[in-house]
Amino acid sequence: MSIAVRLAMSVALAAAVAGCATSPVDYGASLSPRDQKWASPECQRARAAAADYEVREKQHPGWEFAALGPYGLGLIAAVKEHEQKQRKLFARNVHLQCSSLPLPKELQGI
Hints:
- The chain is mostly helical.
- It is built from 4 helices and no strands.
- Helix 3 (41-59) packs antiparallel against helix 4 (70-98).
- It starts with a helix and ends in a 12-residue tail after the last helix.
């Protein structure tokens, strides 16, 4: 299997996986505003940081690496994987600061 095919498969896999990570802003909106932590300054800061990250992520999608050919495809995959990890970290922080419920399984061990 050629390098270009392997990289293309990696990019497709990374894009599919990145699409699965919930937006930290959407995750924060899914939490109960009735929770005692919701109105805390820490929660407000965590939600603001998640919103700021989401705006930066949308402004810098990482597709400019495609101009580098097969090497660019690997860079795109790495960027998308990093974005997925960042989304989970922000969602985890929002949960910890805004919810009294136990941390969900998908946000543990990050």
